[in-house]
C-alpha cells in the first residue's frame, strides 16, 4: 500500500472485513450493523472512533513519495525519476500527462485528489534561503498563493517562466519581461508585487520545503491521513467523549449508548428481530430501550444514586443520555477527577448491561447486590493502572474526589 494505488474494490473488501470484525461476525456469519461504518472510522472530533479509512491510508502513503521527491534526497529512485522525467518538480507534479508508470500513477492520484477539492500541494510550501532552488512564479514561497496565479498579467509578460527567486531578485523585476508594464491592471499588479517582495530577504541557507500542518514543518503521515478522512467521512456536531482511564471496549460501549445503538429489545424490534417479551429484563416494568435500561430502570437509578453518594456530589435523576450529559457537564470537579468520574459512570453502564445479559443468557440468576461493588473494584483497577499517581483501594473506596493527583 505504500507505493501502489490500491483499487477501490480491494479497499471496500478490506473495509468490509474490518466492519464484520468490529460487529463480532465470524467467517461468513452476518450480524446487525448498529453504526454506519463510515461513522465508526471518522475522527473522534467528528463523532467517530478515529479508526480512519484504508483509502486515506493508501493515498497518504502515496503522497509521502511526493514529499520525498520535493526534498531531493538524492536516493537511487530520485535519480532515476529525474533521469527519465527531468528535475523540474513543478512540471512533474502539476502536469501529469496520462502516461503509465508507478511514479506517474502517484502523480495522477494527487491530480485526482485535487479534482475532489483536496489540495495536497497547497500544504507543501517553500522556505526560501538563497532562492536558487525555488521557482519565482511556480512555487508557493511567499504569501498564500502561487505568484503566477496571483499576478497572471505579469506572468504573461515573463520571458523566463521558470526563473528562480535568486535570479529574479538579483535584478529589477521588470528586466525579464518582454515589454514594459502598462498602466491599469498590469501596473496595479506590479505595484502590489513590489510591496510584497519588499519583506523578502535572501540568506546563505539552502531553500527547503516545509509542511504547513505543524510547527516544525516536517511532513507527517498522520496529517495527510486526517486531511483525506476529513474530506470524505461524515462529520458530527458533537465529538466523541473518550476517557483515557478505562478500557477501549467500555469507551466504545459508552459511545454506542450516546448514539442509542446498543441491542436493546426495542432496537432489535426496529431492525426486524421478533420479540415475544419486550419489557425490561431487570425490572419487568417498562419497555426495554437504551434510556430505560441504562438510566430509568430502578436498578440503574439506584446505582447512579450510590455513585453520587460515593463521590459526594448532588444526585439528580436522569432519564436519557442527553439529560445525563447536561447534568454531568455542570458538575464542578478538577478536570482529571471529573474524567475519572465519567469513567466510573461508563463502567456502571457496562456492568448494568452485563447484568442484563446474564439474566437473559446466563446459566444462573446474578445477584443485584454485587453490581455496585463490582463497579467500585473495576473502576479502581482500571483507573489506578492508568493514572500516574499512586493511591490505595481504601482511598478510592472512601472518597475518590479527595485523592491528590
Automatic annotation (TrEMBL):
Pfam family, one: zf-RVT
Any GO MF annotation of the entry: RNA-directed DNA polymerase activity
Ranges for domain Reverse transcriptase zinc-binding: 239-302
Tree of life domain: Eukaryota
Keywords in alphabetical order: Nucleotidyltransferase, RNA-directed DNA polymerase, Transferase
Keyword Cell cycle listed: no
Alphabetized PANTHER family for the sequence: OS12G0587133 PROTEIN, REVERSE TRANSCRIPTASE ZINC-BINDING DOMAIN-CONTAINING PROTEIN-RELATED-RELATED
The name this protein goes by in its record: RNA-directed DNA polymerase, eukaryota, Reverse transcriptase zinc-binding domain protein
Species whose genome carries this gene: Artemisia annua (Sweet wormwood)
Amino acid at each position: 500500500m505504500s507505493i501502489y494505488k490500491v483499487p477501490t474494490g480491494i479497499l471496500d473488501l478490506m473495509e468490509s472485513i474490518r466492519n464484520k470484525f468490529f460487529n463480532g461476525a465470524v467467517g461468513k456469519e452476518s450480524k446487525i450493523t448498529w453504526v454506519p461504518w463510515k461513522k465508526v472510522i471518522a475522527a473522534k472530533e467528528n463523532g467517530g472512533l478515529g479508526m480512519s479509512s484504508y483509502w486515506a491510508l493508501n493515498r497518504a502513503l502515496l503522497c509521502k513519495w511526493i514529499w520525498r521527491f520535493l526534498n531531493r534526497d538524492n536516493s537511487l529512485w530520485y535519480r532515476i525519476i529525474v533521469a527519465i522525467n527531468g528535475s523540474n518538480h513543478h512540471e512533474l507534479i502539476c502536469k501529469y500527462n496520462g502516461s503509465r508508470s508507478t511514479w506517474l500513477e502517484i502523480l495522477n492520484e494527487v491530480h485526482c485528489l485535487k479534482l475532489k477539492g483536496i489540495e495536497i500541494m497547497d500544504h507543501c510550501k517553500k522556505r526560501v534561503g538563497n532562492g536558487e532552488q525555488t521557482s519565482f512564479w511556480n512555487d508557493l514561497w511567499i504569501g498564500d498563493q502561487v505568484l503566477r496565479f496571483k499576478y497572471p498579467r505579469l506572468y504573461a509578460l515573463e520571458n523566463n517562466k521558470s526563473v528562480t527567486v535568486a535570479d529574479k531578485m538579483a535584478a529589477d523585476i521588470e528586466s525579464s519581461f518582454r515589454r514594459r508594464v502598462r498602466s491599469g491592471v498590469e501596473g496595479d499588479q506590479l505595484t502590489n508585487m513590489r510591496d510584497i517582495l519588499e519583506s523578502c530577504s535572501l540568506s546563505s541557507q539552502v531553500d527547503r520545503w516545509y509542511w504547513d500542518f505543524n510547527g516544525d514543518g516536517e511532513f507527517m503521515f498522520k496529517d495527510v491521513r486526517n486531511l483525506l478522512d476529513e474530506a470524505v467521512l461524515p462529520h458530527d456536531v458533537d465529538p466523541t467523549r473518550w476517557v483515557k482511564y478505562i478500557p477501549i471496549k467500555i469507551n466504545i460501549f459508552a459511545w454506542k449508548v450516546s448514539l442509542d445503538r446498543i441491542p436493546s429489545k426495542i432496537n432489535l424490534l426496529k431492525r426486524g428481530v421478533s420479540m415475544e417479551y419486550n419489557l425490561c429484563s431487570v425490572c419487568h416494568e417498562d419497555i426495554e430501550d437504551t434510556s430505560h435500561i441504562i438510566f430509568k430502570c430502578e436498578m440503574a437509578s439506584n446505582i447512579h444514586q450510590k455513585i453520587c453518594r460515593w463521590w459526594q456530589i448532588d444526585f439528580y435523576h436522569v432519564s436519557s443520555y442527553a439529560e445525563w450529559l447536561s447534568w454531568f457537564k455542570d458538575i464542578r470537579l478538577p478536570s482529571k477527577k471529573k474524567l475519572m468520574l465519567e469513567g466510573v459512570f461508563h463502567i456502571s453502564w457496562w456492568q448494568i448491561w452485563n447484568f442484563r445479559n446474564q439474566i437473559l443468557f446466563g446459566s444462573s440468576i446474578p445477584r443485584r447486590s454485587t453490581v455496585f461493588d463490582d463497579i467500585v473494584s473495576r473502576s479502581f483497577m482500571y483507573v489506578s493502572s492508568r493514572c500516574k499517581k499512586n493511591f490505595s483501594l481504601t482511598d478510592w473506596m472512601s472518597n475518590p474526589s479527595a485523592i491528590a493527583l
